[in-house]
Each structure stands twice: as C-alpha cells, then as structure tokens.
Write a structure and sequence with these properties.
14 strands; 341 residues; disordered N terminus; Rossmann fold; binds nicotinamide-adenine-dinucleotide
C-alpha cells in the first residue's frame, strides 16, 4: 500500500496518533476525534451535506481531513457553516449568499454532479471561494435514463404496468414502435448528448443534433440548425444547460415546429422546456408523449404534467446510479485533496 498523503502533527483522541516522520497506511487508519491536519498543517473541516459515496468519504479521511457527513438542514446552515472550510453538496442544498456570507472560513464549495444552479457561483468566487463540480461522472447514467424514457414511451411501459396492476389485460392497446430506424434529435451535443448519440446509433437510430458551439463530431451524427432538427426528429432529447435569462429553449414556437406525433425527452433541467406548452402539445395530440426527469418546481412538479397518461416521469434520478455515485465520490475527494494540498 503506498503512503497516503498528509501528516498528523497534533495528537488526536481515540484515533490515529503518529509523529510526522511516520507514513500512514490505510489499514492503520481509524476515524479520529480531534485535530487532523493536511500537508500544509491546516485543519480542513469538510461538510458533506447531501451524501457522498463511502469510498469518497474514506479517501478524504485518509488524507487527514475532518469530515462531517450528517446533513445540516437548509435553515440551520447559515448558523453552522462558519465551522467549515469546505462544503460538498448535490442538488438539494442551496448555497446562496446567506450561506456564503455566513461561511467566513469557506475556501471551497464542491457540487457532486454537473449543474451548479443551486450555488451562487459568481458571488462565491467574488469572495475568493473556489467552486468545483464533477461534470463527467454521471454522463452515461443520464444518457441511459433518457434512452429508458424513449423505450418506456415507445412500448407503453408506464400504462401497461399501471393497468396490469388493476387486473386489466390491454394487449391490443399497446402496439408500440421500435427505436431502430427512427430519427433521434439531440439538442446539446455535450457530454450527455454524446453518450446518448452513441447508444442510439448502436440501436440503429439515425442521429441528428443541434449545438451552437459544436461544429464537428467524430460520431455518425448530422449537425444541423435547430430549425432543421425539430421537424425531422421522431424523438427529441434535450441535453443543454438551462439559461434562466434566455428562458425556455423549447417553448410553443419550437414545439409547433416539431414533427407531429414526436416524443420529447427532458433529462436536462426543468426550465429548458416550457411545461405549459408541453402539456398543451400532449393534450392536443401534437406530441405523442414525453419523458421527463427534471421539473421547474422540484420536488413539487406540475401535477397535470406528471399525471398525463402519455408521460413517463422520474424524480430527477438521471445521475442516481451506483456507478455514477462512486465516480462522483472519488472525483469530489480528489478535487478537495488536491485543493487543500
Ligand atoms: N437529469 C439529471 O440528473 C442530470 C444529471 C447531470 C446533468 N444534467 C443536465 O444535463 C444537461 C447537459 O449536461 P452535460 O454534462 O452534457 O453538459 P455539457 O456542458 O457537456 O453539454 C451541454 C451542451 O449544450 C450545448 N448548448 C448550450 N446552449 C445550447 C442551446 N441553446 N441549444 C443547444 N445546445 C446548447 C453546449 O454547447 C454543450 O455542448 C445540463 O442541463 C445538466 O444540468 C441532468
């Protein structure tokens, strides 16, 4: 086992006590109550407020960091954050100016995952606090969920499950369609968009995409203006960021341009598509169905939308796989260990 980073120069109670000439080994490590210091001799106290993989937490502790992983409720956070040098969140905890102002010792904020819309990034950075995230760790998981919604919609999985549990056998009503041979339109050909494109190509779909910042791709994906993607896509999957100032990227005008009977999948952010316009398009029959993982109001999504019979919904679980969580935990730990070296 290679030596672990960090030295202990102060005695700790009930845990690992060594002088700074000894190497620490993982097998020797026991969680300690007391003063742990990193290579620079600074005590680093880290709050993990929305959970993290056991392995990631272990990595931080082995590096000599003092980890507190019991959730502090949002309303108590301003009064407690002053104790910590770093906070790790996912999407639940909001790190707004009240928390940042109260975090007088804060040096780093880490978002385990991609979207940092729950953090006032510019404000934190204006105060010299480093904001980091783990953008690539969950891309494959989110892409697989988008694909799962496409399959669920195409084969009536939601309705078939619900009606069978009601004792019905509605075999004739669930004549589905294959993905193979259909056209998938991707808006936002970034990390997740690329993962989805690879999966869709493997299933025999044609893939077209619009991304204002992507001019070439190694994949067999046709890059087109948005106005050309919309009318051609049998399935339109959204994988761009939500720009609050710009508003919905897909509103009534864009939906109107979509192919009649197409499916729309949103595993990006709630605001990317107008939920009202989407509901209207489902009710009018313009769209055949929608797969939605993210909502304008979380955790209280638009009731009429989630109860719509041609909608497949999930509660923002795009990144919720064991594999993604492990990758996120390892990346968060590595970022913090490097930052406080
Ligand atoms: N459902 C979940 O749990 C979950 C998990 C992770 C990420 N996400 C979301 O997925 C989305 C994509 O994440 P990513 O990691 O692929 O990001 P990314 O930055 O790698 O890719 C986003 C792409 O969108 C493009 N883009 C920007 N504006 C656009 C526009 N108006 N139209 C089309 N394309 C545009 C960018 O050029 C970029 O290539 C983000 O909104 C992110 O918050 C959701």
């Amino acid at each position: 086992m290679p030596p672990l980073p960090g030295k202990i120069i102060s005695p700790v109670v009930g845990g690992f006590i060594q002088d700074d000439t000894q190497e620490r080994k993982a097998a020797d490590y026991k969680p300690a109550i007391g003063l742990l210091v990193n290579n620079w001799g600074i005590t680093v106290k880290i709050l993990i407020n929305d959970g993290m993989s056991a392995e990631g937490i272990q990595m931080l502790r082995q590096a000599g960091h003092d980890v507190f992983d019991t959730k502090i409720p949002q309303e108590e956070l301003p009064s407690r954050i002053g104790e910590f040098d770093a906070i790790v969140v996912r999407s639940a905890t909001k790190v707004r100016s009240d928390v940042i102002d109260a975090g007088t010792g804060l040096k780093a904020i880490v978002r385990g995952g991609v979207g940092v819309d729950n953090i006032d990034v510019a404000y934190a950075e204006s105060k010299g606090i480093k904001v980091m995230n783990t953008p690539a760790a969950s891309s494959a998981s989110v892409a697989e969920l988008a694909l799962a919604h496409m399959l669920a919609l195409s084969r009536f999985l939601v309705q078939a499950n619900l009606t069978m549990r009601d004792g019905k056998w509605e075999k004739k009503q669930y004549k589905g369609r294959e993905l193979a041979g259909k056209t998938l339109g991707i808006l936002g050909l970034g990390r997740i968009g690329n993962e989805l494109a690879k999966m869709a190509l493997a299933l025999g779909m044609k893939v077209i995409a619009y991304d204002p910042y992507v001019t070439s791709t190694d994949l067999d994906v046709e890059l087109l203006p948005m106005d050309e993607v919309l009318p051609r896509a049998d399935y339109l999957s959204l994988h761009m960021p939500y720009d609050k100032a710009a508003g919905h990227a897909v509103g009534p005008v864009e939906i109107e341009k979509m192919k009649d009977g197409a499916f729309l999948i949103n595993c990006a952010r709630g605001g990317v598509v107008s939920e009202k316009s989407l509901l209207a398009a489902l009710n009018s029959g313009k769209l055949a169905g929608a797969g939605i993982d993210v909502f304008m109001e979380e955790p209280n999504p638009y009731p009429e939308l989630i109860h719509h019979p041609r909608v497949s919904v999930t509660p923002h679980i795009g990144a919720s796989t064991s594999e993604a969580q492990e990758r996120i935990g390892n990346e968060v730990a590595t970022l913090l260990i490097e930052h406080f070296k």
